[in-house]
Specification:
By secondary structure, the protein is mainly alpha-helical. 68% of the residues lie in helices and 3% in strands. It is built from 19 helices and five strands. Helix 6 crosses helix 19. The radius of gyration is 58 Å and the shape is rod-shaped.
Length: 621
């Protein structure tokens, strides 16, 4: 009894009895609430799905007929969008992996990919799902389609008429601004087109620069420097040759003396005639003595340079005048001897008819010829000795006075020098012409340049109050927003600086080449023997050149004095051709803008050329 009368633990027992039914009841209420909430969620999801489907309605059907109807598959649309974005991004030069990351971001923005995992609070599971289509409740039903269109047109007609009228009135107020908008857009694209055209013109000159011979050989500049080191010695030797052997010698290198003639006189003489012949002989002798003295004064010294001895004598007509005097003396001598040996007297006689007549009878020589013969032999001996010496000299110097070999050497040196100079000049001209167009490109694409200015003007026009509701303005605004900088000003500037550095260095080299002179004439002007001869004549003077010493040692000494400082040279420095920022080969470190020009124009031209060649081959076949 005491056991049953104890009261300790009664509350716990009471709670156990109460809590079991309470927990059971609470669970029932929770499950009932979840069922109710699930129904609401499903209703909302269904409404959202339908609304989403309706947002993909066909715009043309809605605008033209007022029909909310879908005519495409949304999943297919987004799949196509994803492929479109990926192809566009890859075509811009971005690799596939990076393109996929951009596409993923775009699709997330469109809501096709969830950015984070969701939590199913209701812990629902789809057991069964079915959609029941209301029969004939779609646009395939002609009655529904007709009623929808007719009901829409009841209101569309009057409204459109009113809107058209209002739009017509509004168009008059915005017409000028719309025209301006079109003009601004056209101006922008004209400037952009001019930029591309200037790029093409610049590339044409750069392509010609790349074809220059100086870029085809790694040793081009070293080869010329080695040649230039020998220019002084070669030109100096040529100068010696011209002064010593060639200057004004070709016309005076022959022997003017000739064998004496045999006149073969036939006549009769008398005392008066013989006296006249004696006088003629003495006159010819006196003239010969004068000319002979000039020959003797034209001294042939020991160690004489035969060529100058003969040439200077001929140039002053010493030997020629002596020949004429000797020939006249020879004629007078033969004439006198014949007259003495054929003297006759006139004798009177009576013929058979007793008539007095006169006849000529030859008489023995009344004058001695010994003295005349002695004088002639003495003069003849001197003449023959001189003739022999001059003939030998003329034969010996025949090749020396021929300028052909010297002319060939001058032409060879000229061609080497002028080839280098022309290559540098051509390269610099192409770079300068390219820079002319590249500067126009830079002035257009730089911040605040003409392209930026036209873009700002175009954009400002789209924001005009008169075009607030204009579809044209909205379209242009969207187009402006999508524009990107297709040519970066800083890349153009970097390329311009590179070309400027090369052009400046080429200009410095050309200035140094102009310092190469010989006897005051630039090497670029000495293209042949005659030109070099004229340069030497201008520097030294004809009087000096035609009166050089005849003795060879004195002649060489004089020439050495003249040619000692006659050659000047410049410092052709080519150390810069491989220096950073001025590398002469543009292809060595391809700058971004150079790559752009090459890709944009060179490859395109190659494709066109290849197509034309293929077409010609097909035509031939």
């Amino acid at each position: 009894m005491r056991f049953f009368n104890k009261t300790k633990g009664a509350i716990s027992i009471f709670l156990v009895i109460i809590m079991v039914p309470m927990l059971t009841l609470s669970g029932l209420f929770v499950d009932a609430g979840r069922v109710k909430l699930s129904r609401s969620v499903m209703d909302s999801a269904g409404d959202l799905a339908m609304n989403t489907a309706l947002t993909n309605y066909d715009i043309k059907l809605k605008e033209l007929y007022g029909l909310f109807a879908t005519a495409q598959d949304k999943e297919d649309l987004f799949a196509k969008l994803e492929d479109y974005y990926r192809s566009c991004i890859i075509s811009a030069g971005i690799d596939g992996v990076e393109a996929d990351s951009y596409v993923s971001y775009i699709m997330k923005t469109l809501g096709m990919i969830s950015e984070e995992e969701t939590s199913d609070v209701l812990n629902m599971h789809l057991v069964d799902f079915a959609i029941s289509e209301v029969e004939n409740a779609n646009m395939a039903n002609a009655t529904i389609l007709k009623n929808g269109i007719v009901n829409f047109m009841k209101y569309r007609g009057p409204i459109n008429m009113g809107l058209s009228f209002l739009s017509s009135l509004q168009s008059f107020t915005s017409l000028s601004k719309s025209t301006e908008l079109v003009e601004k857009r056209q101006e922008y694209y004209e400037v952009q087109q001019s930029v591309l055209e200037n790029c093409r013109k610049a590339w044409n000159h750069i392509r010609n620069y790349n074809k220059n011979d100086m870029l085809k050989s790694e040793t081009y500049f070293d080869d010329f420097k080695n040649e230039a080191k020998q220019f002084k010695e070669k030109y100096t030797n040529i100068g010696r040759k011209v002064i010593k052997d060639l200057y004004d010698t070709q016309k005076h290198a022959g022997n003017p003396l000739k064998p004496l003639k045999d006149y073969g006189f036939k006549y009769t003489s008398d005392a008066a005639t013989i006296q006249k012949k004696i006088n003629d002989f003495n006159t010819a002798l006196n003239r010969l003595n004068t000319k002979e003295d000039k020959v003797k004064k034209h001294v042939y010294p020991d160690g004489a340079y035969d060529l100058q001895y003969l040439v200077q004598g001929n140039r002053e007509d010493i030997f020629k005048d002596y020949y004429y005097a000797m020939e006249r003396f020879n004629e007078a001598y033969q004439d006198l001897l014949y007259a003495i040996n054929n003297e006759v007297d006139k004798v009177e006689y009576i013929d058979e008819f007793d008539n007095v007549k006169t006849k000529e009878e030859k008489v023995g020589p009344r004058h001695s010829t010994t003295e005349y013969e002695k004088i002639f032999k003495e003069k003849e001996k001197f003449y023959n000795e001189l003739n022999k010496k001059l003939s030998r000299i003329a034969n010996d110097i025949a090749d020396k006075v021929n300028p052909d070999e010297t002319n060939a050497k001058i032409v060879e040196l000229y061609n080497k020098f002028i080839k280098f100079q022309r290559d540098l000049t051509d390269a610099k001209n192409n770079l300068d012409n390219a820079l002319k167009y590249l500067n126009k490109v830079y002035n257009a694409v730089k911040p605040g340049g003409s392209l930026d200015e036209k873009k700002n003007e175009w954009e400002a026009t789209t924001k005009a109050d008169e075009l607030a509701n204009s579809s044209l303005a909205k379209q242009d605004a969207a187009e402006i927003k999508g524009l990107s900088s297709f040519i970066k000003a800083e890349e153009v500037k970097k390329f311009i600086d590179r070309l400027n550095n090369i052009s400046t260095n080429l200009g410095n080299m050309l200035s140094e080449l102009d310092k190469f002179t010989f006897f005051g004439a630039k090497l670029s002007e000495l293209d042949k023997y005659e030109t070099l001869k004229q340069a030497i004549e201008r520097k030294l003077g004809r009087k000096q050149l035609v009166s050089v010493p005849i003795k060879e040692t004195e002649l060489d000494s004089k020439i050495n004095t003249w040619v000692q400082d006659c050659f000047t040279e410049g410092n052709v420095n080519a150390d810069w051709i491989n220096a950073p920022g001025s590398k002469i080969k543009l292809i060595d470190d391809k700058l971004n803008f150079y790559v752009f020009l090459y890709t944009k124009f060179n490859l395109a031209d190659e494709d066109v050329t290849s197509s034309e060649d293929n077409a010609k081959k097909l035509d031939k076949k």
